[in-house]
Amino acid sequence: MNRALTRTLALFLVVGLSASPVGLAAVAVPADASADPAAESAATVAPGEAADAARADVTYVEDDVTENTTWTAEGGPYRIAADVTVEEGATLTVEPGTAVQPAADIRITVEGNLTVAGAASDPVTIATAPQAPDDVRWASIRYEGGPNSRLSLSHVTVENATTALTVGSSAGRLSLSHVTVRNVSRDGVRVADVARTPRLTVEDSTFADVGGRGVALTPGTGAVGESRVTSNSTEPSNRTEHQIALRPGLDTTMDALRVSYRGHGDVSHMNRSSFRRFGLDLNDNGSVERSLLPLVKEVNSSDKNSYEIRLRRSVTIPADATLRVAYEWVENPNTYGTYPVEVAVRTKGVAQTATTVLPFRLRSDGGQPALDEATSRVGGVTVRDSTFESVGEQGVFVAADEVRNVRVTGNSVSDARGSGIALRGREVGPVVVAGNRLAEIGPTADGIRVVSRRAADLTLRKNRVSRADAGIGLYAHDGNVDRIRLAANVVTDSATGLRVRHRPRYYSQHLSLTAVDNRFADNRGRGVSVVAPSSRVRNLTVRGNEISGNGRAGLVLRGNEVARIALRNNDVRRNDAAGVRVLAGKFLHSAVRNNTLADNRGDGFVARTELVVHDLSVAENRVLDNAGVGLNVDNSLTHAGAVNLTDNLVAANAYGIRVAGAFGGRILNNTVVYNTYGGAPVPMQDYRPGTGIVVEEGEAGAIFRTGDVSATLERLVDDRQVEEMLDRRVPDTYTVVLRPNRAAYVWEGSEGALAVRALSEDIPTGVVLRKSDENRQGVVVRGNDVYGHVRGMVVNVSTLVDANTTTRLFVNATRTVVAERNYWGADAGPTHASIHPEGTGDLVVTRQGWVDFIPSASSPFGPRRERPVANVTASPNPAPVGERVLVSGTQSSDADGRVETYRFRIRPPENGTLENVSGPTRSGPSSPEATATFQSTGNYTVSLVVEDDLGVESASAANATVAVRNRSAIRTTTVSAPTGTTTANASESPATTTTLPDSSENGLFPQLTAFTTLGGLLGLLLYGGGLVLGGVGAVQTVRRAGVSVGGKTINGLAVAGIAVWVVSGLLGTDGLLALGVGGGALWVALVVLLWALVRFVLD
C-alpha cells in the first residue's frame, strides 16, 4: 500500500477515536491499566456512571471516633467532611498506604490515641483531595490527650494544612518518626494553649515549604510577660483610642510591630498621625522613656482588621522593658465580649516571640484582664535527625519561662528566614544542641540562638553553621550565665562566628563558658565576640580553637572584671584586625599560653585595661607576622600589677612587645627578633615600626598604694598645692591620680569615674613609694634575645604626674627598667647614645626614665635566627617583545627554616604584567615562580622579596634585569657569563644565557620588523622607488626606447633611501644601519651589472 495513504488513514483513526467519548475515557486510563479488563470496562462507562463510581470509592467521615477503629488502604481514601474527634479511651489506627483527605478548614482532634503507621515503601498520606484547588487548606491535627494518651505518626506525609500538628495538652506522649510535612501555611508542629509541653519526640522527619516555624514549642505565650490591650471607650462600635502594653520578657529585636484584631475591630482609618505614643517604658512606670515615633517609616493596613508599623532600623526591647503603643481611630467590635488581639514583634518579616494573643474584653464595667499566665515550661522534648527546608521563620523555635531537658541533635536546616534553632527562656538549661547542620539562614538571624535571663548547663557541640548572622549567638540579661560548653563546632561564612552578649542586673552577676576545639573561620566580622562590659567574666576557657580568616578581630573579650581566663593552644591567624583583644576594667589571674597568633592585620595579642592588670601570664606563644604589636599589655593607670611575658617567640611583627602601666612587669626569656613587618603596619602612636620592646607608663596616670608606706602621701609630693588638696580629701587606702587637666590638680576617684573602692585589698594595685629606695618596683627585662630591629627597646616612663616641673611622685627616676643580661644581636652589646655608644647591637632609646642594660649577653640564649636570602632569575633573557618570561625564586634560601612566601615586583610596572604572584594578603606558601609579559622594548628590573615560615623578610630585595628587544635583534649563543641576576646578601654566579648581539651583526638583510619603524618605512619607499624606476629605465634602454626618468633622479631616490636607513640606525633603531650599508652595496652592484648588460646588448 502507498505509504502516504497509510499515514493519512492512521491520522483519521486517531482523531476520530480521540473525539469520541470512548476515546476520551481511554486517554484518561494509565498505561499500565490497559491490560486490566476491569480497567478497560471502567474506562468505557458514561460520564455520569463514572462519577457515581468515583463517589463509591471514597469513604466519607463525618462522625467522631468513639471506639477502636482502623482505617485501611482498601477502605480509603477517607474524605473527612466535618471536624472529627478521637474521643478519650478510643484509638484510631491508620495502616500503610491509606489516604486521608480532610476538607477545607477541617480539624482532627485527638483526645484518646492516634497511631498512623505507614511504611517506608507505602506511607500514609494526609492531605486535601487531589482534585481540590491549590489554595484549599485543612486546619490541623490537634492533640488534646490525657495522661494515658499516645499520638504516633510514622512514615506519614502531611500536606496542605494550616498547621500539621497542634499540641494543646501537656499530658501523654507524642512521637513523630519519618514524617514529611510539606506545604503548610503556618507551623509544622506547634505547642500552644497549654502551660507546659508533654513528652515529645520528632525524629527522621522532613519539614519543607513551611510558612511559619518547622517545630514551634511555645506553651502558653512563651516567655512573654504581663501584657494587655485596653480601650478608652467601652461602647460597641465607638471610634476610640486603644493602648497596648507588651512585655516580651527577654531582649527582643524588632523592626516592625503587627497588630491583628482577627475580624473584629476596624483599624482601616489609621495612619502615622494616629499614634499618640509608641516607645519603650524602661522604668516600668507607665511612661515612655524612649520614643520610637521618630523611627517610624510607615504604617500599613493589609485589611481593615490589622495594621503594621515599620521602623527605619532595628531596635532592641530590653528584657525588663515594656513596649507601649497608643493609637486613635479604632472602631470597637459591634457587641460586648472578649476578642483576641494578636501582637507580633518582627524582624525582616520574622516573628521574634511566641504567638502572642491578648484578650481584649469589651464590657460595660470597663475592666480589662492582663495576659499574665502561669509559668510556662518546655521539657522532655527531642528533635533529632530531621530536615528543615524553605522555612518562613525559625526551623526549631522554643520559647517558655523555663526551658529544660531539650535535645536538638543531628538536624539539617537550610533556607530559613529566621534562626535555624532558637531557644528563648527566662531560664534555659540543661539543653543539648549537637550535630546540626545549618546553612543559608536569614540576614539578621543566627544559626543557633539562645536568649535568656539565666542560662546554665548548655552544651553546643559538633554543629556546622554557614551563611548566618551569628553562627552561634548567646544573649543573656539580668542573670548569671554558667557552664556553657561549645565544642567541635564549625562556623564559616557568617557575619560573626560566636557572639555572646551579657548584661547583668547586679555587679556580682557573672558569665562563664568553655570553647574547645571549635573552628570559627572566614566570617565577615569577628570570629569570636564576647561582650559583657558590666559583667564579671570568670572561668572562661578558650582552648584548641582555630580562629582564622575573619573580616575583623579573631577573638574579642570585653568585661568589667575579667578573671581566671585561660587562652591555650589556639590557632589565631589571618584575621583582618587583632588576633586576640581583651578589653576590661580589671584583668586578673589569667593565662595566655601556647597559642599561635600569626598574620593578623592588627596586634597579635592585646590586653587593654582601665584600672588594673595583675597576675597575668603570657607564655610560650608563637606571635608572628602581625601588622601591629605582637604582645601588647596596655593599662591606662600605672600601677604595680604583675605581668609575666616569658618564653614567647615574637618575630616579624610591626612591633615586638609592649608593656604600658604595669610596673610589676617581667619580660623574661623571650625571642624577640626581626619585628620589621613587611606589609602596611598598624602604627602605634609616637613609636616607629620596627621596635622590639616598648616599656612605658599608663596614659591616664597612676594608682598609689599607701597602706604599706610609713610616710604619708603628702610627704612624697613636692608640690605644696597638691599637698593641700590631699589634706582635704577623705582618707582611702588607694589614691587615684589621673593626668591633670591643669597644673597641680588631683582628681578623686569619683571625678575620674573609676570604681576605686571596688579594688581588692589582696592584690598589689598600686605603686609602692618609699623615698630613697633604689630597690623599689620596676619592669624587669632579662634573658631575652632581641635583635634585627631598627630600635631594640624604647623606655618612656616619666614622673607619674607631671602637671608642672615641681611635682615628683617618683622621687628617684633611676632603675625604671632593669634590662640586664639580654642579647642584643652582637657580642659588643646594644647601642645607646650616651651609656654605650660603642655597641653594635640593636639600638636602646630612653625617652623618659632610665634603663640599666649592663651587663649584656654576648651570645644568644636560643638558636640564632637568620633572615632568608632572596635569589631571582629570569629566562629567557634577553626576551622578545610579547613573549612570556619565567621569573623564579627557587634558588632563595633560609638557613634556619624554609622560604614560604615569594613577592615579585616589576619596575616599571606600567609596561609589564605578572601572573601567579602572591598578593598583599599572604595566605600560605606561594609559588616560587611567576611569569611576566613585556609589551615594549627596554630594560626591566624584576625584584623579589621572600619571607620564611616565621614571616621574617629577606634583608633586601634580589633584582634581575630583563632586556626586552624586538625579535630581529636577538640571536641565541651559549656563553659563560653573568645572567643579569642578583641575590640579596649573596654574590653572583656564572651561568649559560642568551646574549644580546650588536645591531651590526644582523647581516645584510634584516627581518621584516625593521620596516615597521618610521625610518625603515620611509627608506623603503625611497629605495624601492629607485629600484622600480631603475628597472623600468633598464627595460626601456634595452628596447632602445626613450628613458622616461633620468638616471640622476633614480640614483637620487636610492641614495636618499640609503641615507634615511643609515641615519635611523645610528639613532638606535635596530637593524637599519646594517640595512643601509647593505642597500648601498646592493645598489652599486646593480648599477655595475646594468652598465655591463647594456654595453653587451648595445655592442
TrEMBL record:
Gene3D superfamilies: Immunoglobulins (2.60.40.10), Single-stranded right-handed beta-helix, Pectin lyase-like (2.160.20.10). It comes from the Archaea. Residues 869-965 form the PKD/Chitinase domain. Keywords: Membrane, Transmembrane, Transmembrane helix. Residues 973-983 have a biased composition (Low complexity). It comes from Halorussus gelatinilyticus. Residues 218-240, 857-884, 908-933, 973-1000 are annotated as: Disordered. SMART domains: PbH1, PKD. This is Right-handed parallel beta-helix repeat-containing protein. Signal peptide: none annotated.
